Amino acid sequence: MGEPLLALAITIPTGVAVLAYLVVGLVIGVESMGVPLPGETTLIAAALLASQGHLRIEFVIAAAAAGAIVGDSIGYFIGRKAGRGLFERLGRRFHHFSEDRLVRAEKYFHKYGVWTVFFGRFVALLRIFAGPMAGMLRMHYPRFLAANAAGGIAWSTTIGLVAYNIGDNADKIFGKVSIWALAVIAVAAVSAYVIHKVRRRRHPAPVAVKPESADV
After folding, report:
1. Which of 32, 76, 78, 151 could form a disulfide with 71 if both were Cys (CB 3.0 to 4.6 A apart)?
2. Helix/strand/coil for 213
3. Cα–Cα distance between 148 and 154 in angstroms, integer?
4. What sign results for the dihedral spanned by CA atoms 90, 95, 100, 103?
5. 215 Cβ partners below 8 Å, 6+ apart?
6. Contact, 52 vs 12, CB < 8 A?
7. SS3 helix, strand, coil % of the chain, rounded to 5?
């Protein structure tokens, strides 16, 4: 994937810079709404263009962050309005939205909702799920927006600056980073679940004793 991205960075003329920023924001925004598009690859390609002098890296990052925040917010309201039926319909067409994944995502959101929105920005599958799933589960919107904005800015800044500085190897490196990020999140979720179960066994909830009714 590295060579095509470098070739793209060399051949695109500087006169289409504004269009390039719009494409970055649009692709990332649509992906954040729940459509499986290559948002991260688009951001990396734009950062490579910036490293070649065709674009401004600060505008690339701003476009990516804006697309992530706006797209996730639109996805949130789509999920809130359409409900679970939306995911069931999508599950019949896209394996990303299978029933098994939907159930697991629901459980994870109920326990770690805000952190899922923030860290999910760095993992391809969670980037697609986060907005619509948060809306479907009726997450409080101000909390969602804060996590969404923080995650979108952190992700676009990190990916954009690193890709800008390391050049043509960015796509390969971030592919590995995404896999490790997903692994870290999975290990953290399992660890939290085990700790929760152990604590419940050591400190079981007191059983309420129903008072006997007095004889008349």
Report:
1. 32
2. coil
3. 10
4. negative
5. none
6. no
7. 80, 0, 20
CB-based contact 77:134 (threshold 8 Å): no
Given a contact cutoff of 8 angstroms between Cβ atoms, the answer to whether 170 and 163 are in contact is yes
Greatest Cα-to-Cα distance within the chain, rounded to the nearest angstrom: 94
Q: What is the pLDDT of residues 125-167, one digit of tens each?
A: 778 878 888 888 888 899 999 999 999 999 999 999 988 888 6
DSSP assigned state of 167: G
Closest by Cα among 127, 178, 171 to 8: 171
pTM of the entire structure?
A: 0.67
- Is the Cβ–Cβ distance between 51 and 167 less than 8 Å? yes
CB 187 within 8 A of CB 71: no
